What we know:
Elements: H1 2-23, E1 36-51, E2 60-76, E3 81-97, E4 109-126, E5 130-141, E6 153-165, E7 171-186, E8 194-208
Antiparallel strand pairs: 1-2, 1-8, 2-3, 3-4, 4-5, 5-6, 6-7, 7-8
Amino acid sequence: MKQISHYFLIGLLITTFQFVHNNVCAQSIFSSSKGTIGLTYGGLGSNDAIYSSDIIGGGDYASNGYYSIGITYLRPVTERIEFETGILFNKYSYIFSNASLGPDGPAPYEVLNTVIDIPVTIRWTFFKYFFLNGGLSLGIDTEKENHLDSQTGIGAIIGVGAKYDIKNTPIGVFVNPYSKIHSLIPFQKEGYHQRALESGFRFGVVYYMR
């Protein structure tokens, strides 16, 4: 069911981008100082959990996929710079294995983790349709019995993207390849704290408020 919903969302976004390709204008007539609000979906990438240094017998957390859904809000600061924030719900899956336990050790198994993010980033637009974005993110790890170290803390995001405004409508869309590290500054410091990494694509549909 989860895979079907992912394919549906991806198909919907691809269809939207195809529509935009035939109706895009150089600059939206609905651009407004009130900003934009929209929905985002992230995925199509990899996620890992790493230690800050090599740990003997610590095991390995290999990427097994993730998805992210959220609400975004962009507020213009200048003609080219926007402030972006919002809230994201992130679900991660890892395959945990520990070769140091030898052939009699447990078989690799799935580990799930859920983190809620509140990003605070800056978006800089260039060549009208492209942008760079980056900043910090407050992560809140919601797992009560967490196999990973807690990912609650301050993380960092960096990305590049493309955006289009649909002609004669208050609707815009964007795609944003990005990388993120969680718990760069953890609130619960462990001796060798794990940090979750992710790299993928974020898709968004936004509405220009008037």
